[in-house]
Amino acid sequence: MKIIVTSLFVQDQDQALQFYTEKLGFVLKHDVPVGEFRWIALVSPHDQDGTELLLEPNNHPAAKDYQARIAADGIPATMFGVEDIHKEHKRLLDNGVKFTMEPTQMGEVTIAVFDDTCGNLIQMIEK
Fold this sequence. Notes:
This is VOC family protein. InterPro entries: Glyas_Bleomycin-R_OHBP_Dase, Glyas_Fos-R_dOase_dom, VOC_core. It holds the Pfam family Glyoxalase. The protein is about 25% helix and about 40% strand. The protein has about 130 residues and is of the alpha/beta class. It has a single domain (about 5-125), classed as 2,3-Dihydroxybiphenyl 1,2-Dioxygenase, domain 1 (Roll), CATH 3.10.180.10. It has a 4-stranded mixed beta sheet with strand order 1-4-3-2. Strands 5-8-7-6 form a 4-stranded mixed beta sheet. It is globular, with a radius of gyration of 14 Å.
């Protein structure tokens, strides 16, 4: 068994698609209409057959509440691994991404946290 799709609640699918592709550099794999929303799945440019990130609309009240509460408490909604966190941090800053936590060493890992402009905090980690 392996993880093939993971989802992330977003406030606006179009805004999220733009942020995750243009600012972060993910690649669009699927964009399929599903009722009033879309099945939007992204992949890493380095592993286009790997795990897909689904940009899931937060239109359900439980999803909105969950998203708002973890963001208010400063809890990242998900984590992305990077090889060089300082290089990635600079690249994202240059792309206009706002960080809530600069790269910080925590034991054997270094982490940073940024705002995805779609209701989530996202953590980056270099192991």
